[in-house]
Design a protein that fits this description.
Layout: E1 2-6, H1 12-23, H2 34-42, E2 52-57, E3 60-70, E4 83-93, H3 99-115, E5 120-123, H4 152-160, E6 164-170, E7 173-175, H5 179-195, E8 202-208, E9 216-223, E10 226-235, H6 237-243, E11 247-255, H7 264-278, E12 283-285, E13 288-289, H8 293-302, E14 310-317
Parallel strand pairs: 4-5, 11-12
Antiparallel strand pairs: 1-2, 2-3, 3-4, 5-14, 6-13, 6-14, 7-12, 8-9, 9-10, 10-11
């Protein structure tokens, strides 16, 4: 008989083994290690074992689900503001063909979040809208909670339980070994710089560190005392370890409102590309919502990122249990 119980330290090996079994062959799969999972999930200050339920049969883990309150912090615990009316499910993991187990895990997580007062529950990868740190950067983390098209069983089960799609996004990639294209982008960056020569913009690079993520760096465009554009970049260590390809992630791309539509988003991306290249980057990847047309055109059109994977965010309205 399979029973659900809270995560225990002795579950670490079985959970990691199950993860690797389920996600092998999936989009950008990289093998998870116990050190990765413990350091970036279990050892985090906000980890609650009562929100990590393990399905166990005869003492052997056969699946798990991880969930919790909707929050909006990114870099610092001091910024954590839980939303009691919201909940999120970060990971639902069970072997292929175990539809009943997937359904039980999803239903249990939804029920517990509802009992805690959640009225709207999200089923989505953790990085969306900077909600929480779990799994960000962890090997295979793109599959959390498995909302790639390849996870058809989980999607079907979620739809059957009343979840509906609320967002679609992609993770395009830019191959930096295509030297001709890189040279074209570099030349375009120089042309944009010249257009702003009279303003004397400055380029500045600073480290980006947090409690939850690997260290990165940010390229900033500065006008006087004002940062008017920024793009962070950093090595995706697990991907590089698994594939022998130095893939860098681009995050936090922003342009101040008054400076938009002048090419500065493209410029700061090119500067981040050049900085990553100087560290040996062979490719870049990023995340972008499908309905963010301005960003979609910038990445896919102006910069030449190529579509790679598509992902979904689902949500469900529930009546809180009283």
């Amino acid at each position: 008989m399979t029973a659900l119980r809270a995560y225990q330290p002795d579950d670490l090996s079985a959970v990691v083994e199950l993860w690797n079994q389920v996600f092998a062959g999936g989009p950008n799969f990289t093998r998870l290690t116990e050190e990765d999972f413990h350091g970036r999930v279990v050892a985090q200050p906000s980890f609650d074992p009562n929100c990590f339920l393990v399905a166990a049969s005869a003492g052997v883990a056969s699946g798990f689900v991880h969930f919790g309150p909707l929050t909006n912090f990114w870099y610092h615990l001091s910024e954590r503001r839980p939303d009691p009316a919201g909940g999120q499910i970060w990971a639902v993991v069970a072997p292929a063909g175990e539809r009943a187990l997937l359904g039980s895990l999803l239903q249990e997580a939804t029920g517990r979040l509802s009992s805690a007062g959640a009225r709207r529950i999200y089923l989505h990868p953790s990085w969306v809208q900077s909600t929480q740190p779990f799994y960000n950067g962890v090997a295979g983390g793109y599959e959390n909670p498995g909302l790639a098209a390849s996870r058809s069983e989980l999607l079907e089960v979620a739809y059957e339980q009343g979840f509906a799609q609320v967002a679609e996004y992609g993770t395009p990639e830019l191959d930096l070994t295509e030297r001709g294209h890189v040279e074209q982008l570099t030349a375009e960056g120089e042309r944009i710089w010249r257009r702003f020569a009279s303003l004397r913009l400055e380029e500045r690079t600073r480290p980006v560190r947090s409690l939850f993520f690997p260290d990165r760096a940010a390229v900033e465009l500065v006008w006087g005392m004002e940062v008017i554009a920024i793009a962070a970049y950093g090595l995706w260590e697990e991907h590089s370890r698994s594939y022998g390809r130095r893939m860098y992630a681009i995050t936090g791309v922003q342009v101040a409102r008054a400076w938009r539509r002048q090419g500065l988003g493209k410029l700061v991306m090119i500067l981040a590309m050049k900085a990553a290249l100087a560290e040996g980057a062979e490719a870049l990847h990023l995340h972008v919502y499908r309905d963010n047309q301005a960003a979609w055109r910038l990445y896919h059109g102006a910069l030449g990122f190529r579509p790679k994977w598509t992902w979904l965010t689902l949500a469900k309205q529930v009546q809180p249990a009283n």
